[in-house]
Design a protein that fits this description.
disordered N terminus, disordered C terminus, globular, single chain, 2 domains, 32% helix
Length: 280
């Protein structure tokens, strides 16, 4: 049977497009309505006085991790390393945006297990089962409503612990830092090991971002370019229900949207041609 209707042609067109337009998932901290940090630049202060390793090595790993997130072309946010400060772990974890303490802050804790077992601040719930033997870093945030404005990235420098940052090879240290910086930015864990935000960052052997990672940071910090959220945008990400935000792979999604416009235009033209219009 020969089919030459516009409707059938539309079905064929979308049948070719949809298999490649799979949704890619990422998760956000706290809420799917999270707005992230305000502004276009985020400066990370550091206190590496109690890390038990050369500070220059930590600076190098931090710079690699920050630059990795800076490579996302669809994100407006630029990350940079700021000055060294003297804020203590207890002060940092008890702070908030209103406290005036430097934030976000990267700091080493030589007593990490006790810090998180006891819960040394209102921002921490005591966790009697916490073990610093297998956790190289923890990110603690104290957001205001749905806006991120205070975060502390605590690095494990506890003596005798296998997950102590000084025991990590340079690549693993950079991966751990980049993963935790992802949390600072507002991203949660994913179940896909290809992602930097996979729950076990130490399982990765290469410092890189996946499409999910890039989609997540672009969702929180869109560049705001013309057409960013319009029909011809770069793959607008949407949030559905209570599940994690999901977004189409940008190029394929934009092509599918453009195809839809063409099909609708063809249907409209065919409809108009089928009518007889008379002037009154």
């Amino acid at each position: 049977m020969r089919r030459n209707s516009v409707f059938f042609q539309a079905l064929v067109f979308f049948g070719l497009l949809l298999p490649g337009a799979e949704a890619r998932a990422f998760t956000l901290s706290y809420s799917s309505a999270l707005q992230g940090w305000q502004g276009t630049t985020l400066t990370f202060k550091t206190n590496f006085s109690n890390c038990g390793m050369p500070v220059a090595e930590l600076y190098s790993a931090v710079d690699q991790a920050l630059e990795l997130w800076n490579t996302v072309p669809t994100s407006r946010l630029r990350l940079e390393r700021g000055d060294e400060v003297t804020t203590t772990v207890a002060q940092a974890l008890a702070g908030s945006a209103a406290s005036g303490l430097p934030t976000p802050l990267l700091i080493c804790d030589p007593d990490m297990e006790n810090t998180f077992r006891v819960g040394v601040s209102p921002n921490l719930d005591p966790d009697p089962a916490f073990s610093s033997n297998n956790i190289p870093a923890v990110t603690v945030q104290a957001p205001t409503a749905l806006t991120l404005d205070y975060a502390v990235l605590v690095l494990n420098s506890e003596s005798g612990r296998s997950a102590r940052v000084s025991n990590l090879v340079p690549t693993t240290l950079a991966v751990v830092l980049a993963h935790e910086i992802g949390h600072v930015l507002g991203l949660g864990h994913t179940a896909d090991p290809v992602n930097l935000m996979y729950y076990d960052a130490t399982a990765r052997t290469r410092l890189s971002l996946s499409q999910d990672d890039m989609d997540g940071v672009a969702y929180l910090y869109p560049r705001g370019e013309p057409g960013q959220n319009g029909l011809f945008g770069c793959g607008t990400l949407t949030v559905g229900g209570e599940g994690p935000p999901r977004g189409p792979h940008g190029g394929v999604a934009a092509l599918a949207e453009f195809g839809m416009v063409l099909v609708l235009a063809a249907l409209g033209t065919r409809f108009l041609k089928s009518k007889t219009w008379r002037m009154a």
